[in-house]
Amino acid sequence: MKESAIRTRILEVASRLFYKQGYNSTGINQIIEEASIARGSLYNHFPSKRDLLTAYIQNMEEFSFQEWNTLLEPIKDPKQKLLKLFDIAMLRQTRSEFGGCAFIKIASEIPCDDLVAFDLVYHQKKATKTYMENLITQINIENPQSVDKEIVANTIFLLMEGAMVTATIAKNNQALIDAKKIAESLL
Amino acid sequence: MKESAIRTRILEVASRLFYKQGYNSTGINQIIEEASIARGSLYNHFPSKRDLLTAYIQNMEEFSFQEWNTLLEPIKDPKQKLLKLFDIAMLRQTRSEFGGCAFIKIASEIPCDDLVAFDLVYHQKKATKTYMENLITQINIENPQSVDKEIVANTIFLLMEGAMVTATIAKNNQALIDAKKIAESLL
DNA sequence: GTCTATAGCTGGATAGAC
DNA sequence: GTCTATCCAGCTATAGAC
Predict the structure, then answer these.
(1) Under a CB-based contact definition with an 8 Å cutoff, are residues A139 and A187 in contact?
(2) How many Å from the N-terminal Cα to the C-terminal Cα in chain A?
């Protein structure tokens, strides 16, 4: 479909600006200008700015897990897969100039009445934890009783979250390097 | 000084609104209305909204450490002091209806060019980690070689950060309960 | 479906009376 | 140093031509 090309461009530009400048600091005017489309076209595809936010979060979640799958696919050892998640987090932080986790950012600034966006963020975090749990289950299958699955999954998830926000505030990857080492010692 | 009474009221109202609604979502109009003061009075005490933000962050940091000192003072065992920090985090989350860490929120939404605010957030996080390190040093003095100071401090700090953001997104204290248990097992 | 023009409002900040 | 009146730029969203 030709019509979805413009939709894609709108969403790409909006995503970049929402992430870099923040949702509230990004106006419709800037989006239409940088996407080189007209005001009416935007509202034709997205009835409101909030719909654009919803699409942004859903799109980010899909992209995030796709990238994980792609980059983890060549690795065979589930323990190395799990540790690779920290490398990917560092990669993302470096290429975004320490912009931080998009979902945490959105959760921090969305209007308190936007429950839809909040639920999408919650969903992403839950799926992330499940993703980690599945990797740990594979570790357990290959090497039974090597780790206490539930506690390790909890610990590594919380370490990752903490390291992401810390790396963002410190503007360097040290916290992620530390978190990876700690995670390694648990497995 | 009588004059600082109105300044205090402005800062109180602004702080409440910045935390609850977000900095970008809170307008000057709402602040002056809820503080029942005139536009000019606000700009007399705070030359710009950004100065109000700076004062908010500094004030929050001071309050945060004061509360820690007060609530930890009755406890003698340094290990119990450290674990108490998780209880205080739960207390704060409950009383703010899971509003999250004020400093992480601000770091997520401030304009990218406001380096002053960003540095203040960085300063607070560094001070928080130092606070934890000092408690762990005391544990080591009472019970030498019980823990590897540097790694434990890193781990507990990252767990706390991760648990705070997770509790905020999940709107319950489970992550902080989990993090406390993990921290306890490390000490 | 894409465009321009504009409505209707609210943002931060300033000027000047008192 | 506290007030009111006001400026102007920005916002989201809509109307109607093409």
Answers:
(1) yes
(2) 48
> Phi and psi for A46 in degrees, rounded to 5?
-130, 105
Tokens representing B130 are 């130092």
Å between A59 CA and nearest CA of chain B: 19
Q: Residues near A97 by Cβ (< 8 Å), separated by ≥ 6?
A: none
Under 8 Å CB-to-CB from A165, ≥6 apart: which residues?
A100, A101, A104, B104, B107, B161, B162, B165
User: What is the distance between the alpha carbons of residues A117 and A110, in angstroms, rounded to a whole number?
Assistant: 8
Report the protein residue whose CA lies nearest the C1' of nucleotide D5: B39
- Select from A108, A165, A169 the Cβ nearest to the Cβ of B109: A108
Within 10 angstroms of residue B73's Cβ, the number of other Cβ atoms is 9
Q: Check: CB of residue B82 under 8 Å from CB of residue B156.
A: yes
- Summarised one tens digit per residue, pLDDT across range B134-152 is 999 999 888 877 678 899 9
Give dist(CA B154, CA B160) in Å, integer.
10
Q: Which long-range contacts (CB under 8 A, 24 or more apart) does B32-35 make?
A: B35/B9, B35/B10
pLDDT digits (tens, 9 = 90+) for B47-68: 999 999 999 999 999 999 999 9
Q: Shortest CA–C1' contact from B37: which nucleotide?
A: D2
DSSP state of A95: H
Distances (CA, A) of A176 to A152, A155, A179: 17, 14, 5
| Location of structure tokens 């935390």 | B19
Tell me how many residue pairs between chain A and chain B have CB atoms under 8 A apart.
Answer: 115
